[in-house]
UniProtKB/TrEMBL annotation:
It comes from Eublepharis macularius (Leopard gecko). One of its GO terms (cellular component) is NADPH oxidase complex. Keywords: Cytoplasm, Phosphoprotein, Repeat, SH3 domain. InterPro entries: NADPH_Oxidase/PX-Domain, NCF1_C, NCF1_PBR/AIR, NCF1_SH3_1, NCF1_SH3_2, P47PHOX, PX_dom, PX_dom_sf. Gene3D superfamilies: Phox-like domain, SH3 Domains. Residues 128-187, 198-257 form the SH3 domain. It is found in: Cytoplasm. SMART domains: PX, SH3. One of its GO terms (molecular function) is phosphatidylinositol binding. Residues 1-99 form the PX domain. It holds the Pfam family p47_phox_C. This is Neutrophil cytosol factor 1 isoform X2. The keyword Nucleotide-binding does not apply. GO terms for biological process: respiratory burst; superoxide anion generation.
Length: 356
């Protein structure tokens, strides 16, 4: 929400989504390539604006309010040819949607309430700009806590969980939606998952699961495994010895973390569907998200484990060599301390030489 003050001293309130602001920013850079630093970075005067990301923490979304304030302040202080160009003026003009702002039921601003009931009003977060995603297929809800979507629906994401269930709102409806059914409005280049970490992160299996597809892995409760790739749809790639496969992240717990009743309650829910199981996908993007095969995971994982074992062996061999060398060689003898008479004689000879 922006309060725009015009030259005739009138003040108007306009509403713009962050994704729309970012598209405006990209178009402005294309209009002024010199001032945007595309030709020479030293000539850049157009302010920076971070791109929307597929996975955002609550902290980063809270920071957007101050970021947009600084961005707009820098924007209106640019040279006249930029600050008063038609592109900027038209973007901040009042539209028909601005005259009919969203009602309270549509939640134009979302506040995150503290889970701890002992906390007060001061602990409630400031307004958070929600990201908008598009449904790539129809999803029918299976419980009262879920929300069904139709292909093409634009939903605002309130909370993104590593379990693969995202809490969304669509007009006056709210509920959990599988992340696999959603895609970013900006494009797949903003939707990159984390890179694989073949070093692995130790987790404990808190709920067993039997593989339903060839690229999944069967594990029992209590087993210790390594997570090598965390994916947004809630299906992580894990490693058990030299075997890899997809496993529901909601059934895992990081080694050393405390188990809570909330986590146990979450595990009672079913695992979210994988994107590979969704039929009739209709994406607005020509480019699909990259997908790594399990053969590639296993091959890279084996290579990493072999190099790790080799490094460990070399380190142990090097340590043993040093020990043998120290034990085999005789230590140099410590020379005896000279007597007091010898010290006095040497001092007197040195004094004589200085006098001469």
């Amino acid at each position: 929400m922006f309060l725009v003050k015009w030259q005739d001293l009138t003040e108007k309130v306009v509403y713009r989504k962050f994704t729309e602001i970012y598209e405006f920013h990209k178009a402005l850079k294309e209009m002024f390539p010199i001032e945007s630093g595309d030709i020479n970075i030293e000539n850049r005067i157009i302010p920076h604006l971070p791109a929307p990301r597929w996975f955002d923490s609550h902290r980063s979304t809270q920071n957007r309010q101050s970021t947009l304030s600084e961005y707009c302040s820098a924007l209106i202080n640019l040279p006249r040819k930029i600050s008063q160009c038609a592109h900027i003026l038209n973007f901040f003009k009042v539209r028909s949607d601005d005259l009919n702002p969203p009602t309270a039921s549509q939640k134009p601003e979302t506040f995150l309430m503290p889970k701890d009931s002992k906390k007060g009003i001061a602990d409630i977060t400031g307004p958070i700009i929600l990201q908008t995603y598009r449904a790539i297929a129809d999803y029918e809800k299976n419980s009262t806590t879920e929300m069904g979507v139709k292909t093409g629906d634009a939903v605002d994401v309130v909370e993104k969980s590593e379990s693969g269930w995202w809490f969304c709102q669509l007009k006056n409806k709210r509920g959990w939606v599988p992340a696999a059914y959603l895609e970013p409005m900006e494009g797949p280049d903003e939707a990159e998952d984390q890179e694989p970490n073949y070093a692995g992160e130790l987790h404990i299996v808190r709920k067993g699961y039997t593989a339903a597809q060839e690229d999944e892995i069967t594990l029992k409760e209590g087993e210790t495994i390594e997570v090598i790739h965390k994916l947004l749809d809630g299906w992580w790639v894990v490693r058990k010895d030299e075997i890899t496969g997809y496993y529901p992240s909601m059934y895992l717990q990081k080694l050393g973390e405390e188990n809570t009743p909330e986590k146990n309650q979450l595990r009672n829910r079913g695992a979210p569907p994988r994107r590979s199981t969704i039929r009739n996908i209709k994406s607005i993007h020509n480019q699909n998200r990259k997908q790594i095969s399990q053969d590639t995971y296993r091959r890279n994982s084996v290579k990493y484990m072999q190099s790790r074992r080799k490094l460990k062996t070399n380190f142990l061999n090097k340590g043993n060599t040093i020990v043998e060398k120290d034990e085999g060689e005789a230590q140099p003898a410590v020379p005896p301390r000279p007597s007091k008479d010898l010290i006095l004689i040497r001092c007197s000879e040195s004094t004589k030489s200085k006098i001469k």
